[in-house]
Design goal:
The chain is of the alpha/beta class. The chain has one domain (about 30-275): ADP Ribosyl Cyclase, Chain A, domain 1 (Up-down Bundle), CATH 1.20.82. About 45% of the residues lie in helices and about 10% in strands. The protein has helices spanning about 1-60, 65-70, 90-95, 110-120, 130-135, 165-180, 200-210, 235-245, 255-265, and strands spanning about 100, 105, 180-190, 215-225, 250-255. Strands 1, 2, 3, 4 and 5 form a five-stranded parallel β-sheet that branches. Strand 3 (about 180-190), helix 7 (about 200-210) and strand 4 form a beta-alpha-beta unit. The radius of gyration is 28 Å and the shape is elongated. Bound molecules: 2-acetamido-2-deoxy-beta-D-glucopyranose (3 copies). One 2-acetamido-2-deoxy-beta-D-glucopyranose (NAG) binds next to helix 4.
């Protein structure tokens, strides 16, 4: 009978139609998931590549081991809940070697300092050490429930104090300062009213970690420009002296930015004779 024959065929056709639609949707989901996964994987991969390339160029370290120690600090964690202690295993994997008579700290003078240290191999800043040079200018964070490293949408310091990047710099600054030995130098900014700021990394972390058994002196180079507003009698520098152990000899000298640049460019100028 016609209708009996007809209806099942109709049903069959619509079933096939539903089946094909389901297959198509499933395929689409799989394709999207793979593309998304690859994109995520790429962000981890390219970050890790930058990390290991820089690490290997530095030389002398097992960079896979350093990467694992680094990654464990933040992967799978809320990027606002990474305290500086999370990087302790990293410091253990790549410890700071004591640097005698060459340590250069800086606060609000980053460009001048690095222009100088790049030209003249007299001083070592944190950014010249393995960990400082590998992570300089990079942004990274993890996410709860993920094994990836993200390089965008990471929270900034103003949103949360204990964020992935800030805690890293706090921790490596502490390690760098603890290793400082002999005569140490710090370039501070004479164009601002408070060259020694208690809330800077130098003021809140590094100065507190100086080891007076290792460090003989702290020599401030106050970089002056045409519009300098501070000199060595600045009250904030009295606060700095108060923070230092009595056995650490303190000096301060005003040096113009032009003089630092000229000395940096002069290949004949001996180390230490720039100011
Ligand atoms: C940040 O971490 C430190 C431990 O390093 C902790 O004492 C402090 O309370 C944390 N701050 C916030 C806002 O969670
Ligand atoms: C000192 O700080 C001012 C204001 O932030 C900046 O313009 C200047 O370049 C800094 N000076 C040095 C020597 O870095
Ligand atoms: C500005 O710098 C010059 C030389 O660099 C110095 O003689 C002068 O005392 C400084 N002014 C202030 C207000 O510190």
């Amino acid at each position: 009978m016609e209708p009996v024959e007809y209806r099942p065929r109709q049903k069959k056709r619509s079933r096939r139609c539903v089946f094909l639609t389901v297959v198509a949707v499933l395929l689409l989901i799989v394709v999207l998931a793979v593309a998304f996964g690859v994109a995520l994987g790429r962000s981890t991969e390219s970050f890790k590549t930058t990390f290991t390339d820089r690490c290997e160029k530095f030389g002398g370290y097992d960079c896979e081991k350093v990467w694992s120690a680094f990654e464990q600090a933040y992967v799978g964690k809320d990027p606002c809940k990474v305290p500086m202690e999370a990087y302790d295993p990293l410091i253990a994997a790549a410890p700071f070697q004591p640097v005698c008579n060459r340590v250069m700290f800086w606060s609000k003078t980053k460009d001048v300092v690095h222009e100088f240290t790049a030209k003249k191999d007299c001083f070592t800043t944190l950014e010249d050490t393995l960990l400082g040079s590998v992570l300089d200018h990079l942004t990274w964070c993890g996410k709860e429930g993920s094994t990836e490293t993200f390089t965008s949408d990471c929270p900034e310091w103003k949103y949360c104090e204990n964020n992935t990047v800030r805690s890293f710099w706090n921790r490596v600054s502490a390690g760098f300062a603890e290793a400082a030995c002999g005569d140490a130098t710090a370039m501070l900014n004479g164009s601002i009213a408070t060259p020694f700021a208690l809330d800077s990394i130098f003021g809140s972390i590094e100065v507190k970690r100086f080891d007076h058994k290792k460090m003989k002196s702290l020599n401030i180079v106050l970089v002056t420009q045409e519009n300098n507003v501070s000199d060595c009698t600045n009250p904030s520098l009295k606060n700095l002296q108060k923070e230092l152990d009595d056995s650490i000899h303190y000096t301060c000298k005003e040096v113009s930015e032009a003089q630092i640049q000229a000395c940096g460019s002069d290949p004949e100028a001996p180390c230490g004779a720039c100011w």
